[in-house]
């Protein structure tokens, strides 16, 4: 089974060729990072235009690098949501065009499902892959933390997801990006905060734990036990900057910037780990998979390892951030389950993963 996968949900134009749902034959990513750096975040109009320019060469490179012929493909998988509408549509249209021209089946994939299936791909870290491929890894718990998402998902089987919790405001990565911006650290914020935090004192400022109620308009879960909130931490960081006489981080001392970065990172990673531990225990999961751009965070990795030991998996860095290989892995398993989409398939910018219903425990 060979799948061509395409991903354009945000600011990376990506294509990959994946064999048997796990072997990466090629994985091409054209990043728009430099384009968006000027704006301190993703600028949707520009993203869409950049996707249009990059999509054909990126797909051609992925096919060429894999040495794949069009005849060797079994299907085309593409991210149909969630994401920016103007970005998603570029990948989906490209996929539809190929399916029509080459008479291939189309498989629409949820971007978040892709972040989960990144763990199924062959990579240098193969301990958990054994369990994923050869054993019965379910139920497993997935924490997806990226610039657009913070979701805690219970996975009962291939394709069977249950949303346990999510953020009621900013995504974890978004919070890193916003705090980095107000500290004058640049974009993307996650790596910048991590670097600044290395020299900082994580205990200097105490970020108070957010109070989250199910009655909040954006809450979709059945319990508030697994809901996240990061906008309070962002406001707290802003207040610290202002209290120390700054409009932004550029007018603060390096020491102060480092201490705020370290304290913020300490709090956010604590909250992520606490809720993941709570869910892992409540649902007695066999494995914990952490994915999305924020899973690149060193401190998050260390804290998760300290809690879960060999039971927790992180993809290698190149599979943590957006890529098409993960869409190919998810698409392959969907293809095997018989998932097929019509060429009339539309993008779904607010596509959800699983239902927000918590079953009886036991
Ligand atoms: O998964 P991703 O590449 O794109 C989205 O789907 O959003 O995630 C990008 C996010 C950005 O917010 C970035 O700041 C964050 O991941 N990120 C990090 C780190 N590396 C990237 N956050 C914290 N620590 C990092 N080392
Ligand atoms: Zn992503």
Describe the structure.
The protein has 362 residues and is of the alpha/beta class. It has two domains: 2-119 and 321-357, ATPase, nucleotide binding domain (Nucleotidyltransferase, domain 5, 2-Layer Sandwich); 126-314, ATPase, nucleotide binding domain (Nucleotidyltransferase, domain 5), CATH 3.30.420.40. 41% of the residues lie in helices and 17% in strands. The protein has a five-stranded mixed beta sheet with strand order 3-2-1-4-5, with helices on both faces. The chain has a five-stranded mixed beta sheet with strand order 8-7-6-9-10. Helix 3 links the parallel strand 4 (75-81) and strand 5 (106-110). Helix 4 packs across helix 12, helix 6 runs antiparallel to helix 9 and helix 9 (254-282) runs parallel beside helix 10. The longest helix is centred in the last third of the chain and has 29 residues, at 254-282. It is globular, with a radius of gyration of 20 Å.
Summed up:
The protein is α/β, with parallel strands linked by helices.
